[in-house]
């Protein structure tokens, strides 16, 4: 190196030269070391970027669907039960009908031609959509009538329904036992009715003294109820009767699914005995008629019955087991036992015989 260059180098080393590298301070070296250890660069004081919110669209949709489902359950509970196989017959026949508040104008529509089974005794029947037991008997609002105020009429209506329940739904009565609860609601001073009860319940009965005119009974050695549900449909009405009495009329159809008491080689067979009753009850003014508190007098009682037997009265319904595949003879009169649009065409006369017994168009 020439002497001039060497001297210039020594001079610049002492005084410093523009553009010469500068050794970083200790703080700068520490910051640089931390930056190397942590990837990325720190954000400046005005470069803050908020975290992007998570998308919650899925939760909103799920909540909306759940709310709609709850609304459907609240508005249509019976239909929803049917969707999932609930109800007495698995809901296969649709939602339960509204209560009968007036006389229907036509017969129920046709149902699928399905036979009843032990698991589904009302399958293929309009009764599958009827209410169970006493719930199927509509009681109207009470108002002051005759000698009774509204509260008394309400009690008379309730006791009238109690009579129907005791006579047509009590499990013990259905097994052939004495209908004690129903009898307790009858005026003990009504001589003709008391004579009828003594004759009907003490012997096999006659057409005029058949206990089936008022009470539903099966001989336990011959038939048994399938399950513990009897389907019903009907209503009570009332008006002022003779001597200011409150006259209550009941028009109710009962559907009893029964099976043979023993297998009898027909294991699984189910027959529906269908009974429609019209009973007129008089809640008399004790100031004008001899009666006892809480009892009523019978004005009339009528019966329509199918699949309950057409032979001489025995005091019990006799379901026709083993005849499901038999075809009715030509000219046999057929009736629709579910048609409640027509009045009962039988009075207190004799029970049907083999010659005039009609065949059920469906059961």
Explain what the structure shows:
There is one protein chain. Mean pLDDT is 80; it is low at 41-54, 77-93 and 347-355. α3 packs across α4. The strands form 2 sheets. Strands 1, 2, 3, 4, 5, 6 and 7 form a 7-stranded mixed beta sheet that branches. A two-stranded parallel sheet has the order 8-9. It is built from 8 helices and 9 strands. The radius of gyration is 42 Å and the shape is elongated. The chain is of the alpha+beta class and 363 residues long. A hairpin with a 5-residue loop joins β4 and β5 (246-260). It has 2 domains: 63-95, no CATH class; 100-320 and 335-360, no CATH class.
Main beta sheet strand tally, sense and closure: 7 strands, mixed
Distance between the termini: 128 Å
**Total count of domains:** 2
Helix content: 10-25%
> Number of helical segments?
8
- From the alpha-carbon coordinates, what is the Rg to the nearest angstrom? 42 Å
The oligomerization state is single chain
Order of helices and strands: HHHHEEHHHHEEEEEEE
The total count of strands amounts to 9
Q: Spans of 5+ residues with little confidence (pLDDT < 50)?
A: 41-54, 77-93, 347-355
Strand percentage lies at 15-25%
Average of the residue pLDDT scores: 80
Q: Quick one: overall form? A: elongated
Structural class: alpha+beta
Please outline the helices and strands:
Elements: H1 3-15, H2 26-37, H3 57-75, H4 77-83, E1 131-132, E2 137-138, H5 150-168, H6 171-174, H7 180-183, H8 191-202, E3 223-225, E4 231-240, E5 246-260, E6 271-283, E7 297-306, E8 334-335, E9 359-360
Parallel strand pairs: 2-4, 8-9
Antiparallel strand pairs: 1-4, 3-5, 4-5, 5-6, 6-7
Helix pairs in contact: 3-4
């Amino acid at each position: 190196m020439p002497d001039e260059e060497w001297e210039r180098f020594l001079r610049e080393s002492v005084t410093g030269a523009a553009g010469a590298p500068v050794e970083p301070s200790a703080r700068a070296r520490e910051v640089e070391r931390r930056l190397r250890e942590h990837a990325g660069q720190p954000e400046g004081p005005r470069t803050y970027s908020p975290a992007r919110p998570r998308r919650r669209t899925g939760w909103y949709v799920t909540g909306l669907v759940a709310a709609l489902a709850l609304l459907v359950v609240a508005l249509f509970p019976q239909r929803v039960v049917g969707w999932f196989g609930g109800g007495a017959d698995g809901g296969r026949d649709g939602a339960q009908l509204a209560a009968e508040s007036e006389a229907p104008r036509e017969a129920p529509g046709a149902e699928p031609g399905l036979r009843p089974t032990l698991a589904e005794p009302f399958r293929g029947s309009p009764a599958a959509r009827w209410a169970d037991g006493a719930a199927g008997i509509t009681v109207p609002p009470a108002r002051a009538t005759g000698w009774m105020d509204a509260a008394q009429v309400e009690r008379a209506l309730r006791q009238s329904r109690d009579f129907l329940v005791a006579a047509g739904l009590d499990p013990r009565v259905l097994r052939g036992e004495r209908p004690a609860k129903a009898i307790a609601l009858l005026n003990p001073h009504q001589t003709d009715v008391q004579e009828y009860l003594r004759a009907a319940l003490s012997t096999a009965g006659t057409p005029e003294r058949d206990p089936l005119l008022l009470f539903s009974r099966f001989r336990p050695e011959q038939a048994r109820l399938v399950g513990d549900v009897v389907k019903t449909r009907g209503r009570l009405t009332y008006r002022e009767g003779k001597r200011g009495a409150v006259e209550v009329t009941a028009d109710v159809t009962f559907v009893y699914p029964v099976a043979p008491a023993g297998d009898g080689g027909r294991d699984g067979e189910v027959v529906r005995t269908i009974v429609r009753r019209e009973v007129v009850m008089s809640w008399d003014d004790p100031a004008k008629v001899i009666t006892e508190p809480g009892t009523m007098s019978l004005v009339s009682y009528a019966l329509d019955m199918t699949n309950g037997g057409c032979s001489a009265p025995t005091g019990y319904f006799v379901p026709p087991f083993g005849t499901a595949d038999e075809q009715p003879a030509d000219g046999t009169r057929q009736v629709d036992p579910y048609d409640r649009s027509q009045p009962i065409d039988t009075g207190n006369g004799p029970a049907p015989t083999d010659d005039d017994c009609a065949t059920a168009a469906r059961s």
